[in-house]
Amino acid sequence: MTDSDQTTYDVAVVGGGPAGLTAALYTTRLGHDTVIVNRGGGRAAMMQDTHNVIGITEDVSGVEFLQTAQQQVQEYGATYRRGFVNGIDRRDDERFHLAVDDGDDVDVRRVVLATGFSDVKPDPPLPPTGRGLHYCLHCDAYMFVDESVYVMGHGDSAAYVAMIMLNFTDEVDLLTRGDDPTWSDETERMLDAHPIDVIDEQITGMNRGPDGWLESFEFEDGSVREYRGGFPMYGSEYNNALAADLGCDLNDDGTVVADDHGRTSVDGVHAVGDLVQGHNQIPVAMGQGAKAGIAIHMDLRAFPRSVDEIEAQGPVDPDEVPAVSQSLRETARAFREAEAAESAADD
């Protein structure tokens, strides 16, 4: 593991969103050779503006946010690859083999799955994502204070989101788009007690303003209703095929079962971000990635050598330290030198 063409690493992170990149940042800075294999795309990449990430201003797009993160982890010494992992096989108690679509396979000691999920989109007509079509209530509700809002869907989740939006605005419509409601009787009673219009007609057209934002929907009964934006609630499709193939336990909703540090039911495999249960938020995903990275470091670090290990292997020889690979040592030295040069230039 001493050159840039290495295909054997300590850690492989599958997925390049906030959770995966943060896990890679931690494992790399803690001295473990790390590769990120990212197919591209993802929910964070679709963000027109970044919300709820302290220190990141709203004018930063998801693509810009991710590009900065990719650059950071590479400057610390991680390898970043664009590719698709077709499969992961366990070779032995300490090794996994990742089959990558470019043919340059990878062998690793630990795997972090950060493959996320895809939101199920309703049929068009629809406004652009981030310009009237929004998937994160906790991120975007603030944008719609005192604005006219729609919620699309016909189940309990859609009904609840519609009622939640009344905390932010008094103009909320629930659009079933011709589908029969599937929410429960209890939810029906709750809806009846909240000032929400349930619109059953199908959408036949859409109008957008000069800024590209949604202005209104046209309905099959000829009516036109104005909206600033809204939330489709049709569920999620979790990208859990690799986890399932490895034998990781899954929850009923398709998420991967993981503990507070991302450990799955399969030793050596962690899952973080939108692939596990919890709030689908960038700061939450970053926290999960950090905790998984630290947990992996605790598992992989060479020192301190335990009493049992000392009895079996003997004391630590000076030639054995430091445990960081030569490539990471060189990168860390170059990073420090660049930082020092930049500081000197600022002075």
From TrEMBL:
Q: Name one Pfam family in it.
A: Pyr_redox_2
Instruction: Fetch the InterPro entries from UniProt.
Output: FAD/NAD-bd_sf, FAD/NAD-binding_dom, Ferredoxin-NADP_redctase_2
Protein origin, superkingdom:
Archaea
- What would be an example GO MF term here? oxidoreductase activity
Which keywords does this Swiss-Prot/TrEMBL entry list?
Flavoprotein, Oxidoreductase
FAD/NAD(P)-binding domain segment(s) = 9-289
What name is this protein filed under? NAD(P)/FAD-dependent oxidoreductase
